[in-house]
User: What shape does this take?
Amino acid sequence: MRIALFATCLGDTLFPEAVKSTAVLLARLGHDVVFPPQQTCCGQMHVNTGYQREPVPLVRNFAAQFGDPAIEAVVVPSGSCAGSVRHQHEIVAERYGDAALRAGVAAVRTKTYELSEFLVDVLDLTDVGAYFPHRVTYHPTCHSLRMLRVGEKPLRLLRAVEGIDLVELPEADACCGFGGTFAVKNAETSTAMLRDKMDHITGTGAAVCTAGDSSCLMHIGGGLSRIKSGTRTLHLAQILAATRTAPHVLTEAAR
Assistant: This one.
């Protein structure tokens, strides 16, 4: 299958290992992974902040970069960015675009997937041959849970990982408090939500907290580092890409 990888802004600038791991995983599963070099931001941050007209050029570029009929699927290591492409792009195109943009968006949105739903729903896989001998807890991010409704797909993938000690996260579906500009505009509320999330994570005794969004992991990881919890954050793709022959070596977390 010919798969185009959408890196996302955060993946490109701050968390490239999550993007690389997505490519490694998909290639290991036997697929042809391509990376359209002119891809840019999907425009999610503009729409979420109320600027729906401004991302029209970004939405148009996304449709152009990933609209090649030879690309059978677009895979995104981010529930929030996949949700933006699948839902927000249509809103922007309908309100501020032209017929060509609406057609381009319609063609791309139907073949765009968050990583876990692509593996489970499209490839019909749960065991991807991963090996990760550590105690892990999973945080379901808001957009993947509520917009994409990926449900237990990430957990099904994690349960099939060889060697993993997967522990349930109490009140898992509660928001971590990030929400992009929400964390800036409502810092006190965001911090209180993060504190609750960290209490639940550290209570599991997990060495790693994983999720499908680097943005949430950035927020959670920053908090866990500041309290010297000893718990690391790691993108789901990095766990699934690890194998016995190419294991992921955990770095020492702050204590």
